Amino acid sequence: MGAILTRIKSLDRRLLYMALLAVILFFPLVVRNDYWISTMVLFGIWAILGLSLNIIVGYAGLFQLGHAAFWAVGAYTTAILSIYLKVPILVCLPISALVAAFFAIIISRPILHLRGDYLCIVTIGFGEIVRLFLYNDPFKITGGVNGLRGIARPSIFGLEINTPTAYYYYVLFFVIITILVMQRLENSRLGRAWNYVREDETAAEAMGIDTVKVKLLAFALGAAWAGIAGNIYASRYTVIAPETFSFWNSVIMFCIVVLGGSGSIPGVFVGTLGMIMLPEILRSVLSSILEWRLLIFGIAMVVMMIFRPEGLWPHSRYRLELRREETSS
Amino acid sequence: MALLEVRNLTKSFGGLVAVNDVSFQLNEGEILGMIGPNGAGKTTVFNLITGIFPPDKGEIRFNGRSLIGLRPHQITELGIARTFQTIRLFPNLTVMENVMAGLHCRTKAGLWASILQTKAQKEEEKFIREKALEYIHFMGLGGLEFELAKNLPYGLQKRLEIARALATNPRLLMLDEPAAGLNEQETSELMELIAKLRDKGITIFLIEHDMKVVMGISERIIVLDNGYKIAEGTPEEIQRNPRVIEAYLGKEE
């Protein structure tokens, strides 16, 4: 009886996922509203950013509050290569990832021994340095306050991606790739090593895990993925400016991870829904809500931390834990 | 032959000399106990050997190789595993995942192999799971694979810590007060287990306050007091040693 019940449940779940997939696949064809399709593109980019930060904050438990800096490095690398050297966008993509990872390694190596909030403060500082650096227009290549314009569109086999609908599927492709990579990492030797570091760094080191290398890898891979998001973002809007990569956006990324449930892939999507989509939806309903945004975020975070500290859609391990408590009480 | 050789080991924290000129050696296949009053420096000796912090002076050689300057994970890789006095499991991970941690240094799949899920990576994952299960069953934790470590009762947590240490496939296992907090039944099971490990060829170095345990299974015992080694010998010799009795019971007026 119980076995049948669980099978029905798993069937239910599979049906749910199929339905969700269908909605996602046909969304632009049904909605046919450029504003909402563009909003979904933005949602996808933020989801990739959230998943990239999830490696660092969720898996490895390292507080990184300057992640927008690596997004910026990726976006500016693509912009500079595209505008000045006419490098195709899709060629810029791996280069952006590598440059972002390179910066991450250089910056995080000396601060790797810092723990918790100390690390957090240093990453905030780094994020601000990058933004100010871009502001000051070094070597006259970042365009200063105005940023850069005229970034090319990606083209696949001569087909240029330039409509919101085309971008929708373009970003969807990257979102799916990102999910697959993250899932595989989660269940790998490296993914487990990140979890050990998060749980108890000293014990992890004593069990034979090279914590320095493992943490460096988390920073580098997270930054590389943010660099990829930067590449997509730059070609989507063809214009970038330093203000996009502000501390506030690092905070939003951090909130996406924590709100949804640290270390949980579906959690990142729930978090992105709450942090990016909800304000958009509210704005279309009630434009004055924007003035209240910060206040609402603040209250929501406080309420979350009190009533659901593990996030809205936590990793199954934590859910397991909750269910057990329910049945035992 | 000496598996571990410690010579003139000294470590001070600020003005406090925690370990003072301590020398001893550990022979392959033996069980060596280390006792001493609280604050004698026993755990510090453990931490120095496993590289948690560096000694001020002295030499530590394992299998002929100096351990000075190596990081803890490198020392573990060479074949020294340990447990902690206050349990240090990964509380929010499952029993299985905890034991898998020990196998990390004996496997090698990297970033690309994990993302691409190469054949070698899949086989290695299978090897890790099988090995982990083996250690889980050896330590009598079968059936608890998917329990979170923090949900286990204290005695089982202690066993899990040993299982995790064993998974690193050590030649030398260092146990920091393994019997602390265990009841009589659990303690005698633990003693059997330690003997079994020794029979498997693993050398054991243990800190223990429970005299019945140390005297019962150790072949030799060293005694620390205030950072100094004050005695060394068989359990019988240690029990008769006046300096040891003085350290534990105080001097007769």
Report on this model:
Helices cover 75% and strands 2% of the residues of chain A. Chain A is an all-alpha fold. Chain A has a domain at 30-259. In chain A, strands 1-4 form a two-stranded antiparallel ribbon. Chain A has a two-stranded antiparallel sheet with strand order 2-3. In chain A, a hairpin with a 2-residue loop joins strand 2 (155-156) and strand 3 (159-160). In chain A, helix 3 (68-85) packs across helix 9 (211-237). The longest helix of chain A has 30 residues, at 2-31. Chain B is of the alpha/beta class and 253 residues long. Chain B has helices at residues 42-49, 72-78, 95-102, 111-116, 119-138, 154-166, 184-199, 211-217, 235-240, 242-249, and strands at residues 2-13, 16-27, 31-35, 57-62, 65-66, 80-82, 172-176, 203-207, 220-225, 228-233. In chain B, strand 9 (220-225) and strand 10 (228-233) form a beta hairpin. In chain B, helix 3 (95-102) packs across helix 5 (119-138), helix 3 runs parallel beside helix 6 (154-166) and helix 5 packs across helix 6. Chain B is globular, with a radius of gyration of 19 Å. Chain B starts with a strand and ends with a helix. The model of chain B has no long low-confidence stretch (mean pLDDT 93). The A-B interface holds A 181, 184-185, 187-193, 195-196, 199-200, 202-212, 217, 221, 317-318, 320-321, 324 and B 50, 52, 71-73, 76-77, 81-82, 84, 88-94, 97, 100-102, 104-107, 109-111, 114-115, 117, 121, 124-125, 128, 148, 151, 164-165, 168.
Stretches of chain B where pLDDT falls below 50 for ≥5 residues?
A: none
> In sequence order, what are the helices and strands of chain A, one letter per element?
HHHHHEEEHHHHEHHHH
Q: For the residues shown, what is the average pLDDT of chain B?
A: 93
Question: Biggest interface and its residues per chain?
Answer: A-B, 32 and 40 residues
Structural class estimated from helices and strands of chain A = mainly alpha
Fourth-level CATH superfamily of the largest domain in chain B:
P-loop containing nucleotide triphosphate hydrolases
For the largest beta-sheet of chain B, the strand count, sense and barrel status come to:
6 strands, mixed
Distance between the termini of chain B: 43 Å
Give the low-confidence spans of chain A.
322-329
CATH architecture identity of the largest domain in chain B: 3-Layer(aba) Sandwich
CATH first level of the largest domain in chain B: Alpha Beta
Write down the CATH topology of the largest domain in chain B: Rossmann fold
N to C succession of SSEs of chain B: EEEHEEHEHHHHEHEHEEHH
Radius of gyration of chain A, in Å, reads: 20 Å
